[in-house]
Amino acid sequence: MKPARFAYTAPDTVEGTLDALDRFGDEAKVLSGGQSLVPMMNFRLARPEVIVDIGRVGGLDGMSAANGTLTVGARVIHARLEAPAVIKPDGRSESLGGVLGSLLPAVARYVGHLPIRVRGTFGGSIAHADPAAEWCILARTLDAEMVALRRGGERAIPAADFFETVFTTALAPEELLVAVRLPILGDDWRAGFCEFSRRAGDFAVVAAMTAVRLEPATGAIAEARVGVGGVAGVPVRLGGAEATLVGETPGAELHAAAAEMAAGEVDPVGDLHGSAAYRRDLVRAMVARALAQGAGASG
Amino acid sequence: MTEISAADVAVPVVLRVNGDEYRITAEPRRTLADALRDDCGLTGTHLGCEHGVCGACTVLLDGEPVRSCLLFAVQAQDAGIRTVEGLAAADGTLHPLQEAFWRHHGLQCGFCTPGFLMLSAGMLESCPDIGDDELREALSSNLCRCTGYQTIVEAVQSVRDAGEA
Fold this sequence. Notes:
The structure holds two protein chains of two kinds.
Chain A: E1 7-9, H1 14-24, E2 28-31, H2 37-42, E3 50-53, E4 63-66, E5 69-73, E6 85-87, E7 93-95, H3 98-108, H4 114-117, H5 122-128, H6 134-141, E8 145-150, E9 153-158, H7 159-162, E10 163-165, E11 168-169, E12 176-183, E13 189-196, E14 206-214, E15 221-229, E16 236-237, H8 239-245, H9 252-265, H10 276-294
Chain B: E1 11-17, E2 20-26, H1 32-39, E3 58-61, E4 64-67, E5 80-82, H2 96-103, H3 113-126, H4 132-139, H5 150-162
Parallel strand pairs in B: 1-5
Antiparallel strand pairs in B: 1-2, 3-4, 3-5
Helix pairs in contact in B: 2-5, 4-5
């Protein structure tokens, strides 16, 4: 229950961090809020040789909105997403409105507990890539882009390519996740999130996020996104459920049909938190509730 | 190049706890919880699960309640730390939260109490008018195996209602 020995460095710049990652390669592990990494180290499930602590690196905790995109710095703590605010070009802080501005707090309240939310970071959760983590489900469902820096280069990795398997991402050992870009959903979007866990603050057994864009003239669904976590090694998108929704008008019957489709297209593995059949039932219920929440009805 | 601390060498760390300065040496892997207990001699902070679930080790770091088992002492350098030893006045007068836990039977064995006190102190200081639902949700961060929680909730509510924290 004590971590194995590790060498430690706490650079105060992004450049210093990239130098350290370049030097130590896969011996190094980035420490941000430490709310997932340190428990794994205490259990000795993780035994990094070198810890690169980015807690003193400036410039990674900003949130800004431009051209329909919200850029969330990797070191933004979960608690800040309970009341998301962006810095305007004139330096003033303004709370983020709109559909994404309502969705982020609704999701943030499911992330761990208060003491976890004031230390743990958005980017840390994304880079940790727990398949049931709320932010990973959000990133996958909204087609977020992960911005990764390495010495002498930057790339944006789409969520579809970023999450590879449990706790494994497309980030190279010498790369640092510095920000995540999320689409600011316009007023024609409806989004919902629903999660089931056995105790408040636990990781989800199953969680679902839905986002649909409505045709202003007809009210029919023009575009649909259905993402779930807790059923595979990565958060997944459910194309069948999405196809069921497109072209139709939101309503209880349509939501039930999409949820049924969702339950049929997942292939969960049972574990001590729930059998495969139980998880499949949860997918049906969580997708239906997320859709109902998005449509403004009670679940 | 930023300085690297070797794994097996204890490095000097300055911890500011309850207004006092503790100059200790600690290996990088030393958690803040262990440093407080073993290096600073402040054994009021308890260690239960050591993986961030039980909350017995909760302390305030720059005013925010955090799990001291999930933080390395080297990370807490330069921060203001408060532990349960800092709650009561120098003359031994109990902090209103300690008084309320006593009055409402918010403890039995007392193992979880330092964590609950620091969690509650951080919560009420940043949000003195916290609603009942939010208060319960915040208190669900920590585990207690004796009380059934109701008396802890009542104790914290009484301090909130009196505006004492």
